[in-house]
Specification:
This protein is of the alpha+beta class and 560 residues long. The protein folds into five domains: 63 residues, Beta-Lactamase (2-Layer Sandwich); 102 residues, Beta-Lactamase; 120 residues, PAS domain (Beta-Lactamase); 93 residues; 153 residues, Histidine kinase-like ATPase, C-terminal domain (Heat Shock Protein 90, 2-Layer Sandwich). Helix content is 41%, strand content 26%. The strands form five sheets. It has a five-stranded antiparallel beta sheet, with helices on both faces. It has a five-stranded antiparallel beta sheet with strand order 10-9-13-12-11. Strand 19 and strand 20 form a beta hairpin. Helix 11 packs antiparallel against helix 12. The termini are far apart.
């Protein structure tokens, strides 16, 4: 007999006249103990007293092994329920809670006794309590899985969002006998969802304000993504599947070939794709778009390319309006400049007209002789024609300067422009006692720009040079006009012998409304810069090595 079982068996034998059943371990011949069920009963034989006991031992090793396995399984199941990383609960068929694991009780800050029945609802947020109770009352009659989100906690500890899932256990007839449930803490998810909603709201508002939408595509599968603002910009219904085809249907016919070439680069997943084009709508409206596309990062949810589509129509219209205003200001400045050149203009027109008058009178005299001198008359008529052409050229140049029209770029020679412009300023040059020196480079390549605009720049630079503050020791003004070929550009500079440019003014000389003249508007050089930069040129200014200053510009050459 196993030492731990001897007392059990002894009590059973001494129990009196009643039978007893006890489980004990008895050692076999091999030295191992085995489980037996021992039946202890009083003797019933007439020849033996009742105080004698009859013992019958039946081996129960297999039953004990089965019981041990079941106990181990039960223990393991209890441990699992207590340690599973979620909150487990159970209710009766009528929804009355009769079990909750330790993790559940700890989160609810309750005990099993307080949570039984409907006690669990005391830990639910007051604003969510009626909702979950009504949901549960209605759901227990459905015999289906359920789900509900609510907050759990207390005013002292705060509340956290939770998600409860439940499923019914039914008998063979399909009748619900119990409900099993699990509750999960989803506070972090809720906060992330809240932040995501805020981010999405900010992104939507930002896209609406900036008139820009996001686009993305998986070039492997052909799947596309458009944001709401992209649909709005393209004016395409939200039920239309995003992709290249509906987008191309909106592209302006004149831009379609250009856009198709850009799309080929996007399909090859090229970097830094940046282009502009127009959209055309059935009602005749035009939109201007700017597209920016780049390959996506590895973590971009399967997208291989992402980008931004921006509606720049307002900016384009503003740019066109600014261009018109700038052109108008330029024309007004030309008129203001020409008003100062009235004497020179009159001189330039009067000179050929005087020649025409003199040659016409001479021609009449040659023809009125008794024997007309046809040869001399012919020469006089030819001089009249030359004078008329000269007067016509002057008028043509003045008409070009005063006419309101858009710039018309063309190829022209810079040296010829200088030669045509200086005579227009002759009277003004004489008034300022100026001496003009030309230093023009030979064989200059042609440039591509509007010659009237470039002539206006030259006139402005010459006028500034003539009107620059004079040094006390200088009675006359010396101006040098120089052209040169510098790399891929042609430069023109006007140098004077005045007091030069103060160092603190160098950075501001081309800014609007900056002037050192008492009656100046400060717009001349600013307009000059806008004209030159519109042809990819640049303005420059600096004080010379000697007296005076040099102001000029460089333009890209247009090779024949």
């Amino acid at each position: 007999m196993h030492s731990e079982d001897r007392e059990v068996l002894t009590r059973a034998i001494g129990s009196g006249e009643y039978s007893q059943l006890v489980d004990v371990r008895i050692q076999g011949r091999n030295g191992r103990h085995h489980w037996f069920l021992v039946h202890v009963a009083p003797s019933t034989h007439k020849d033996f007293p009742r105080s004698l006991k009859t013992l019958v031992a039946i081996p129960i090793e297999e039953r004990k092994a089965s019981e041990a396995a079941k106990e181990a399984e039960s223990t393991d199941f209890r441990l699992m329920l207590q340690n599973v990383p979620t909150m487990i609960w159970r209710t009766t068929a009528t929804g009355q809670m009769d079990y909750a694991n330790e993790r559940y009780l700890k989160r609810w800050a309750q005990t099993l006794n307080t949570i039984l029945g409907q006690g669990w609802k005391d830990s639910v947020h007051p604003d969510d309590r009626d909702g979950i109770v009504n949901y549960w009352i209605n759901h227990i009659g459905s015999a289906s899985d359920g789900m509900y989100e609510f907050r759990v906690g207390s005013p002292a500890t705060g509340y956290r969002w939770h998600l409860s899932l439940c499923t019914p256990r039914c008998d063979e007839n399909g009748t619900v006998v119990q409900w099993y449930g699990a509750t999960f803490d989803i506070e972090d998810r809720k906060r992330a969802e809240h932040q995501l909603r805020w981010n999405e709201a900010f992104l939507r508002q930002g896209q609406v304000i900036s008139k820009s939408g996001s686009i993305g595509a998986d070039l492997g599968t052909g799947e596309h993504h458009w944001s709401d603002e992209t649909y709005r910009i393209l004016e395409i219904d939200r039920d239309v599947e995003p992709g290249f085809e509906p987008y191309l249907e909106r592209v302006h016919p004149d831009d379609l070939e250009f856009v198709l070439r850009k799309l080929e680069g996007i399909k090859r997943n090229e970097s830094d794709v940046d282009f502009e084009h127009r959209l055309s709508f059935p009602d005749g409206r035009i939109k201007h778009l700017r597209i920016l596309i780049n390959p996506a990062h590895a973590c971009s949810d399967g997208l291989s390319t992402v980008g931004v589509i921006m509606d720049i129509t307002s900016a384009k219209l503003a740019e066109q309006e600014m261009h018109r205003a700038q052109s108008e200001l330029t024309r007004i400045t030309r008129i203001a400049t020409m008003s100062e050149l009235t004497a020179s203009i009159a001189h330039e027109i009067n000179q050929p007209l005087s020649g025409i008058l003199a040659n016409g009178e001479a021609c009449l005299r040659w023809l009125n002789r008794e024997k007309p001198d046809i040869s001399e008359a012919t020469e006089a008529i030819e001089r009249v024609v030359l004078g008329a052409r000269r007067a016509s050229d002057v008028v043509r140049q003045l008409r070009a300067i005063f006419t309101r029209k858009d710039p018309v770029p063309s190829r022209f020679d810079m040296n010829e422009l200088v030669a045509e412009t200086v005579p227009l300023l002759r009277s003004h040059i004489d008034h300022h006692r100026g001496l003009i020196t030309l230093s023009l480079a030979n064989d200059l390549p042609a440039i591509f720009a509007d010659p009237v605009q470039i002539q206006q720049v030259l006139i402005n630079l010459l006028m500034n040079g003539l009107q620059a503050p004079r040094r006390p020791d200088k009675a006359e003004r010396r101006i040098t006009i120089e052209t040169a070929c510098e790399g891929t550009g042609i430069s023109l500079s006007v140098s004077d012998d005045g007091v030069g440019i103060a160092a603190e003014h160098t950075a501001s000389i081309f800014e609007p409304f900056f002037t050192t003249k008492h009656d100046g508007m400060g717009m001349g050089l600013a307009i000059c810069r806008s004209i030159v930069e519109s042809y990819s040129g640049r303005m420059f200014a600096h004080s010379g090595e000697g007296p005076g200053a040099t102001v000029g510009f460089t333009m890209p050459m247009k090779l024949s």
